[in-house]
Design goal:
With about 170 residues, this protein is an all-beta fold. It has strands spanning about 5-35, 40-55, 60-75, 80-95, 105-120, 130-160.
């Protein structure tokens, strides 16, 4: 298209409100808990991130919530049963540059969650104990709302000098 020296540019911009990432970090939750259970065998344990709240401080996010578990087991009468359990947790995530305010947005993404367990069976007529260790990794991303001007359209026009003379030869 030629050099920009002989071109004229016009740009159209729009002001947008966007989330700008301040920082992010993967946090680890490690929990241990015991539950009384009348089981001879554990079939499986499913765990998910339950309800939570995020509290933003200077350079830090405190996350407080529950891990929701579904425990499927076989009882002494060989019947498959289900037990739901919520285990509370609290963790701190250091993210430099974070500060509290109305324009802060905290997003959480569960990366993985694992449950390791050991069933200690009870005696005759006594329930046993299910000992569990839970490990979860949560990506905590902190952003803040900000306004930015974005170029949405660019037009390039050739520059014409109206004072420029057109030379004609004799035979024009």
């Amino acid at each position: 298209m030629g050099s920009l020296q002989n071109q004229h540019l016009t740009m159209k911009t729009e002001r947008l409100k966007v989330l700008k990432v301040v920082g992010e970090k993967v946090a680890q939750v490690v929990l241990e808990n015991d539950v009384c259970i009348d089981a001879i065998k554990i079939d499986k344990i499913d765990a998910i991130l339950g309800p939570f709240e995020d509290h933003v401080f200077k350079n830090k996010v405190v996350k407080q919530g529950t891990i929701h578990k579904q425990i499927f087991y076989v009882d002494h009468e060989n019947v498959v049963r289900h037990l739901a359990e919520d285990v509370p947790y609290m963790l701190t995530v250091d993210i430099p540059g974070v500060r509290p305010g109305d324009d802060v947005d905290v997003q959480n993404y569960l990366k993985d969650i694992d449950v390791d367990y050991h069933l200690v069976q009870g005696g005759v007529g006594k329930p046993g104990t299910l000992r569990q260790k839970i490990v979860a990794h949560i990506l905590v991303k902190v952003s803040e709302w900000t306004q930015v001007d974005v170029v949405t359209d660019v037009k390039v026009f050739p520059r014409i000098n109206s004072m420029q003379r057109i030379s004609c030869k004799k035979d024009c």
